[in-house]
Amino acid sequence: MTHAGSPSHYRAERGGFTLIEVIFALVILTVGILAVATLNTISIWQTRRGDDLTNSALAAAQVLDAVSVLPFDSVAVGNYVDTVSFGPANYIVNWTVSDMSDSLATGNREIKRVLVLSGGGLTQTTAEQYELFIFKPGGS
């Protein structure tokens, strides 16, 4: 039997957590916080990459729009490079104009192909490829 003043009596009635339980809870809490921090970092990177892909597509669309409104004969065959800035980032747009009239079975119709590669930005996204075919009016 234990007396009210004995040390074993106090141990039996004490509530709370042991040191091992506290350490285990802190380890679980730390792992959870690190997981959230990692997800936040990945989310920021993916958002920036998405912005770069969008801006890269806009840069390519600007080139495609500019070429598509030109008269057929003024679109010269060759390779071209331009840099487009959106905010703090630069996007490199490469486009190649080639004459496809001989390689396609189009009869007498003249066709030019514009192949646009666009990439860059803060995350240095890889080039996206876009294609435009221009037909000479009045062909058969």
Q: What does it look like?
A:
The chain has 140 residues and is α+β, with helices and mostly antiparallel strands. The protein has a single domain, classed as Pantoate--beta-alanine Ligase, Chain: A,domain 2. The protein has helices spanning 7-13, 19-68, and strands at 78-86, 89-99, 111-120, 125-135. The protein has a four-stranded antiparallel sheet with strand order 1-2-3-4, with helices on one face. Strand 3 and strand 4 form a beta hairpin. The radius of gyration is 33 Å and the shape is rod-shaped. The N and C termini lie far apart (112 Å).
CATH class type:
Alpha Beta
Span from first to last CA?
A: 112 Å
- Tally of discrete structural domains: 1
SS field, number of helical segments: 2
Strand content: 25-35%
Spatial shape:
rod-shaped
Brief summary:
This protein is of the alpha+beta class and 140 residues long.
Please give a handful of descriptors for the protein shown.
four-stranded antiparallel sheet, 2 helices, Pantoate--beta-alanine Ligase, Chain: A,domain 2, 41% helix, 140 residues, alpha+beta, 4 strands
Write the layout of secondary structure elements.
Layout: H1 7-13, H2 19-68, E1 78-86, E2 89-99, E3 111-120, E4 125-135
